[in-house]
Amino acid sequence: MFSTIPELSKSALFELLLQRFPTEDKKLSQIPNPALLNDATKAAQKIAHAIKNNKKITVVGDYDVDGVSSTAIMVDFFRQIPYPLEAIIPNRFSDGYGVSPNVLERIDTDLLITVDNGISAIEAAKICKVRNIDLIITDHHTPLNTVPEAYAIVNPKLSTCQYPFKEICGAQVAWLLLGLVKKELNLSVDMKQFLDILCIAIIADIMPLVDINRTLVQEGLKVLTTSKRASSIIIRDFLNKTVISSEDIAFAIAPRINSAGRLEDASIALKFFTATSTNDAYKEFELLNTLNDLRKTTEAECTKEAIESVDDSCSVIVVAGKNWHEGVVGIVASRLVDYFGKPSIVLSCENGVAKGSARSIGEVSIYELIKTHESFLTKFGGHKMAAGLGLKEENIDAFRIAINETASKLPPEDFLPKDAIMGILSAQDIDFELLNLLESFEPFGEGNLRPKFLLRDAEIVSIKLMGSDKSHSKIEVRQFPHAKQTLELIAFRTVLEMPKNKKLTCSYTITKNEFNNRVSLQLLINKIY
Questions:
Q1: Rounded Cα gap, residues 299 and 324, in angstroms
Q2: Whose CA is closest to 194, among 229, 167, 242?
Q3: Which of 333, 390, 435, 504 could form a disulfide with 344 if both were Cys (CB 3.0 to 4.6 A apart)?
Q4: Cα within 13 Å of Cα(507), Cβ side
Q5: In sequence order, what E strands does 314-451 have?
Q6: pTM higher than 0.70 for the full model?
C-alpha cells in the first residue's frame, strides 16, 4: 500500500513544496482591477448615486461565515462614510436561503444589494422589479441556466465575466465592489483594514489558497494580529498566540461564527463582527461559544446515525433522517466524506420536504453531479466542492439511484482525495528547523494542504488518554526498533487501545503548539491505517 512513498530529507521536502507555487506570490498591489468583474462599475456607480441622492439602501447576506463576513464588511464600510445601511441576514429556519420572496416582505428600500447570494433568486428579482427596487446581486456561486433579471450582477462565475481569477468567495466580491464605490465617491477609506474579516471568509469558505487568495490570507492574518477592531481583539485573546495561522481560523474561529446561523440566528455573528466595543464583542463571542458547544453535541449525534444508515456500496452517499438538525447537515456531510472517502449528501426531512447539504472529494464536482438530476429538485445551488439542495422526501430514493448511476461513469481517480502523503521523515529531522521550513509555505488550506507524512510500523511505547472526557489519545512511538529517540503523536477525538502487535501505521501533520508561552512541535495523527 505504501511501497511508492519516498523517504524525505528536509531539502527534498522543500523542493516538493516549492513545486506548488510555480510563480512568485502576488503583492496586494497586483490584485486584478475590480472593474474587470462583470457589471462591477455599473453597480458601484448605482450605489454611489443612491448615496448622493439619500436613497434607502439595504444589504441581504447569508447565514454562513462568508455571508456574515460579506455583510459585516458592508456594514463597516457604510459606517465609515457615514451612511445608514440596513443589513439583513435571513434566518435559515424561518426564511430559508438568500434574498427570498419571504425576506422581501419585510424590506422597504430603494436599492437592494445581495452579498454571497442572489444568483438563483429569480422570483425575488421579479418582485423587486414590480416594486421598483433596484437590485444589485453580488455572489460567487455557479449560475444556473437562467439568471435573475437584476440591475447588475457581479459574479466571477458568469461566462461574461473578465475577472482573471474565478475562485473567490462572496466577501471578496463585496470587498472588490466596495473598492470601486470608494473610487466613485472619492473616499479616504483604507480597504486594507477589512482584510482581518476577509481572510476569515476566504479560509472558512474553503477557497483555494493560491494566487490572490494566498496573498489576501497572508496579509489578512497580519491585519488580524494588529487590528483595533473589537472582534479581532477578542479573537486574538481567545487564540492566545503570537502568530495566527489559517488553521486556527478554520478549526477554532470559523465553526464558532458558523454556529449562530446553524443553530439560532446569524445576526449574533454579525453583531460580533460589527461590535464597536470589546465588551459587546465579548458578549456575542460568549454566545457563539455556547452555540458551538451545542452544535458539537448535535452534530455528533447526527453523524453517528448517518454513518449507521450509509449504503457503502454507493459511489455517492445520500442519507436522510427525520430528526436531523437542518443546521448541522453540512458538517455531517463533511464527516461522512472523511469517514468513507466519498462525496456525501445529507438531508433533513420534515413534513415531506427534504433539505440538505452536499460535500465532495478529489476532482468530483458535486455541483455538476446534482445539476444533472435537477428534475428531482425543488432548489439547489453551490460550487464544485459544496452545494445545498431541496427535494420532496418521496424522491430521495430515485435521486440516490440516479446520481449514483451518473457517478459510476466518472473516472475512479476523480474520487481520490487530494491530501496525498508526501513522504517518510526520519525522527531526527523532526525539529524546529523543519517547522520553520513548513511555516515558510503558510497559509495552508484548500489548494495548499499542510503536508502529511507517513509513520510505518512504528513500535508503540505507551498510550495515554487526554482531555476532560478522556476522548483524545497521546501515543509515544519508536520509529525504528533500536532508536533512542521516541516521537509523541496526538490523535484527537480518538480513543486508541494498544494493538496486539504494538505497532502503529499512520499519516500525520506537524504543527506548532503554543501553551503558557512555551512553543513546542506537535505531531497530529491524520489517519490510522
A1: 9
A2: 229
A3: 333
A4: 15
A5: 317-321, 344-350, 353-359, 377-382, 386-392, 421-425
A6: yes
CA atoms 427, 501, 527, 248: torsion sign: negative
Residue ranges, CATH 3.10.310.30, the chain: 309-415
Burial (0-12, 13-18, 19+ Cβ within 10 Å), 493: exposed
CATH number at 309-415: 3.10.310.30
Q: According to the CATH classification, is domain 7-12+419-528 in 2.60.120.10? A: no
Q: For 282-302, write each residue's pLDDT tens digit.
A: 999 999 999 999 999 999 999
| Beta-bridge mates of residue 380 | 389
Are the C-beta atoms of 289 and 256 separated by less than 8 Å? yes
pLDDT band at 36; cut points 50, 70, 90: very high
Which residue is it, cell 495561522?
245
Q: Where in the chain is the domain with CATH 3.90.1640.30?
A: 31-287
Please state at what angle helix 65-80 crosses helix 267-274, rounded to 10 degrees: 40
Q: Compute how many other C-beta atoms are within 10 angstroms of the C-beta atom of residue 376.
A: 17
Burial (CB count within 10 angstroms: exposed 0-12, middle 13-18, buried 19+), residue 358:
buried
Residue 499 CB neighbours (<10 A)? 11
Residues 521/513, Cβ–Cβ less than 8 Å: yes
Instruction: Give pLDDT, residue 157.
Output: 96
C-alpha cell at 386: 459544496
User: Kind and range of the H or E element at 508?
Assistant: strand 503-515
Contact status, residue 315 vs residue 404, Cβ threshold 8 Å? yes
CATH architecture of 31-287: Alpha-Beta Complex (3.90)
- In the chain, what are the helix, strand and coil shares in percent, each to the nearest 5? 45, 20, 35
What residues does CATH 2.40.50.460 cover in the chain?
A: 7-12+419-528
Phi-psi region at 194: left, alpha or beta (left = phi > 0; alpha = psi -120 to 50): alpha
